[in-house]
Amino acid sequence: MMRWVTLWTMGCLALLGLPARADAPALVPEKTIPLHSVSGRIDHMAFDRSRNRLMVAELGNNSVEVVDVAAGTILHRIAGLREPQGIGYAERADVILVANAADGSVRLFAAKDFAELGSVLARDGGNCDRVHARISWSTIIFSCLLMAVVIYSVKSQCAKEG
């Protein structure tokens, strides 16, 4: 992991040192994939590299749209959420994590079939409420997602050990 971060950082620094070519085109969109029936704003996104899927948190719809990027289609919608703002994908666990602002929960879904695996109350016990006022909501949501991954991993390991 550290090697990947180092290589990525070196690559970015190398790109910063390259002179801009006047004849090179700006970034050009490759394709547009419409999201259907979205009301309100789109919040965060996560990407599942192994399946080439983009998960989009639709705050106004209380849902997460799963997009098949290669096919350019909507694959699935996870509905019934409570103001989904943070979203993450845990590759090793193959789990989609959704942080809900309305109730402080982090809900976990199996990435292979979108079955709900459970939820963690991120605000339970003050884990996400007792933070310094200068910390942003994105930091809080990330911390809660990380906590949910740890809890899910521990529960999974305990279940395996019986």
What features would you describe in this structure?
With 162 residues, this protein is α+β, with helices and mostly antiparallel strands. It has one domain: YVTN repeat-like/Quinoprotein amine dehydrogenase (Methylamine Dehydrogenase, Chain H, 7 Propeller), CATH 2.130.10. Helices cover 25% and strands 31% of the residues. The protein contains 2 helices and 8 strands, in the order H-E-E-E-E-E-E-E-E-H. The strands form 2 sheets. The chain has a 4-stranded antiparallel β-sheet, with no helix packed on it. Strands 5-6-7-8 form a 4-stranded antiparallel β-sheet, covered by helices on one side. The longest helix has 25 residues. The protein is globular. The protein starts with a helix and ends with a helix.
Concise structural overview:
With 162 residues, this protein is of the alpha+beta class. The protein is built from two helices and eight strands; from the N terminus they run αββββββββα. 25% of the residues are buried.
What distance separates the N and C termini? 31 Å
Helix content: 25-40%
Low-confidence parts, pLDDT < 50 over ≥5 residues? 1-8, 124-137
CATH superfamily: YVTN repeat-like/Quinoprotein amine dehydrogenase
The CATH level-2 architecture is identified as 7 Propeller
Number of domains: 1
Radius of gyration: 18 Å
> Which topology does CATH recognise?
Methylamine Dehydrogenase, Chain H
Strand order, sheet with most strands: 1-2-3-4
Mean pLDDT: 74
Spatial shape? globular
Q: Sheet with the most strands?
A: 4 strands, antiparallel
Q: Structural class of the helices, strands and pairings? A: alpha+beta
Topology pattern, helix = H, strand = E: HEEEEEEEEH
**DSSP strand count:** 8
Secondary structure tally, helices: 2
Please give the CATH class.
Mainly Beta
Percent of sequence in beta strands: 25-35%
